[in-house]
Amino acid sequence: MSLLLSYFDGSLNNGSGLARLFLAGFLCGIIGLERESKHKPVGFKTCVIISVASCLLTLISITSALYYSDLLANIRTDPMRLAAQIISGVGFIGAGVILHRSNQIISGLTTAAIIWSSAAIGIACGAGFYFLATTTTFLILLVIKFSNVVTRLGRRLSKHQIIDARVIIVGSETIEPLLDDLREKGYLVDNVNIMDDKKNRVEVTIRLRVKKNSGVFLLYSTLKHLEYVYSVSLSH
């Protein structure tokens, strides 16, 4: 505690506070512009607001702790108490942008991570860790820039590809034969979602791991030749 207080002692004047606010806005503004260029829901405005507000709350928390510790010797306040609450509040915001679609695909995780990271950078700037805040911003931009390259490399190294199959079959009693037929032909079933349809039909959504040399067209042909299959829709 004494080490932290001595680090900030006399450094939290108006000029220093403004510099930290502007640095927080600048760093997360860069991240926001990158997201804006890709037409993502969290762009420049959101990143800057979250970062600057987090920086402000951190400054208030630290300054208040210093003020009251100097005012009365028996008062001890955690200088990072407000900053700790920022993480919880921003986590709530980030959870709101994560969507679970009907085809078992989850979207918005990167957007939620950007929101959380903007708050973290703001806290770092407010606490005076300029180098760490700048390095974190650089690393985030680096990961966003080259994530597609790493993803493509991972897909090339993988022996399987993921395919979502939406199959409408006649009668619920044909669900087990459908899954058995797929397993017999070497397809790995990861997830199954079943929903009743009209006219005694059942919609079965299956996530399959398919060998790369098999491909989508072979799977489509396999499903279409099953006599109890009414229609097939594939995506990967």
Please provide a brief summary of the model.
Residues 21-152 form the MgtC/SapB/SrpB/YhiD N-terminal domain. The chain is an alpha+beta fold and 236 residues long. It is built from 8 helices and 6 strands.
Folded structure, characterized:
The chain has helices at about 1-10, 15-35, 45-70, 80-95, 110-125, 130-155, 175-185, 215-225, and strands at about 100, 105, 160-170, 190-195, 200-210, 230-235. By secondary structure, the chain is an alpha+beta fold. The chain folds into 2 domains: about 1-155, no CATH class; about 160-235, Alpha-Beta Plaits. The strands form 2 sheets. The protein has a 4-stranded antiparallel sheet with strand order 4-5-3-6, covered by helices on one side. Helix 2 (about 15-35) packs antiparallel against helix 3 (about 45-70) and helix 3 packs antiparallel against helix 4 (about 80-95). The longest helix has 28 residues, at about 45-70. The chain is elongated, with a radius of gyration of 26 Å.
